[in-house]
Amino acid sequence: MLKTAPIRLPKGGLVVLLAALAAFAPMSIDMYLPALPEIARDLAVPAREVQATLAVFLAGFSGGMLIYGPISDRFGRRPVLLAGIALFIVSSFVCMQVTEIDGLIAARLFQAIGGGAASILARTVVRDLYPPSEAASKLSLMMMLTTLAPILAPLAGAALLEFADWRAIFTTLFVFGSIAFVLVVLMLPETYSHEERGAMSLLQALGAYRHILADPPAFGLTVASASIFGGLFAYISGSSFVYIEFFGLTPGHYAMLFAMNSVAIMFAAFLNSRLTKLFELKTLLYAGVLIAAAAGLYLVVLDRSGMAGPYTVLVGLMAFVAMVPILGANGMALLMARYPKNAGAAAATIGASQFGGGAVSAMAVGALHDGTAFSMCAVMGAAGLLAVIFIFGLGRKL
User: Fold this and answer.
1) 313, pLDDT greater than 60
2) Quick check: 71 pLDDT over 50?
3) Residue 345 and residue 336: Cα distance in Å, rounded?
4) SS3 state at 390
5) Nearest to 280 by CA among 219, 216, 326
6) What is the pLDDT of residue 66?
């Protein structure tokens, strides 16, 4: 039962609000993807430097999660969440003003550090309120709702570019963050009471990372999660250049294909919310990793055979990204259940690994960029293989 809510939430309102908070990442990333080529032209920098803004964002998001998880285990979810959103709002305003790529990279870093609070603590609140199987179901429903952001955000970004420059995208993020701040103040209760926190010191809370990463099954799950999300962000960082510059599609056409992948994620998340009632979470986890690995191999073969085209590539992308909610929701639920007294740190471990893997893969895609689909396909194929090795090598005893 909820603790001391400032305002009573309507039925289902909590899941919707938490999904909106979890959407900070896709809103901040996907809305500006159609603008990457324009940013490169406007700031007079090569594509790899603009792609660095994405890699830096992912690294900052990952680092922010590692900070907020254990701090929220010690001081509660609500105050930490509000502080993070406030940082996101200020940084979004700075992004609107920059005129050089270095300034944009720095502002995106702080924007990411702030946004990490909303993303990770929204999921931690679910663990505070529900047992593992129900938490996995709620996390899947949240991901299904959150997937509306990747569907709508690139379309909104492309639409904004028709009437304004790329800075309008960051104005939109400033408004989004401000609305989220007000909603948390008015509607979200503290879900982790002083009594539940006990006498844990901040040092003890931070020390939970050592115990989690020294646990082989938890470590295997963490690396596998990082790998699959790394494949997702290889797609996110590389797809706009592949579809717009290599295949010659318009930003609007690219946004439509991007939305199709988001629909695949949404459908898989909805299906997972039902399957968690029928199958063990581990079974669903293993199946998802195998399908993602097969999809990554398909993309590599497609690229190397010279048969890559907008729609043949789309098939592999949809199969891979559809597995992200299967691993994301079930993996996070399993790890938080394994460490119930350090749910914030456990959620941050998985969340940080996901965005950390995304940062590495985004940098790899940028470094390997040769004007074709090679870098995106190669990194996604490697990500699927790495996930299989670690989930079946170390994660079998979860």
Assistant:
1) yes
2) yes
3) 8
4) helix
5) 326
6) 82
Percent of the chain topping pLDDT 90 = 21
Cβ proximity of 202 and 74 under 8 Å: yes
Nearest CA-CA partner of 373 in 251, 248, 254, 242: 242
Q: What's the Cα-to-Cα distance from 334 to each of 120, 133, 183, 270, rounded to whole Å?
A: 15, 9, 29, 18
CATH of the domain at 380: 1.20.1250.20
Q: Which residue intervals of the chain are DSSP H helices?
A: 13-22, 24-30, 36-42, 47-75, 77-97, 101-129, 132-146, 148-163, 167-187, 194-197, 202-213, 216-240, 251-275, 281-304, 310-321, 324-338, 343-368, 374-393
* Mean pLDDT, rounded, for 352-371: 81
Domains of the chain: total: 1
User: Tokens 């965005």 map to which residue?
Assistant: 355
Closest CA relative to residue 361, chosen from 264, 296, 287, 308: 296
Question: Is there a domain that residue 277 lies in?
Answer: yes
Residue 264 lies in a domain: yes
**Is the residue at 101 inside a domain?**
yes
Coil, helix or strand at residue 131: coil
| Out of 79-93, 199-213, 241-255, least confident range | 199-213
Domain of 189 in residue numbering reads as 13-397
Is residue 5 included in any domain, yes or no?
no
DSSP states of 29-97 as a string?
HHTTGGGHHHHHHHTT--HHHHHHHHHHHHHHHHHHHHHHHHHHHHH-HHHHHHHHHHHHHHHHHHHHH
Q: How confident is the model at residue 314 (pLDDT cuts 50, 70, 90)?
A: very high
Structure tokens at 343: 């749910």
Structure tokens at 226: 């990082």
Those residues whose C-beta lies under 8 Å from the C-beta of residue 81, and which sit 6 or more positions away, are 21, 68, 72, 117, 118, 121, 184, 188
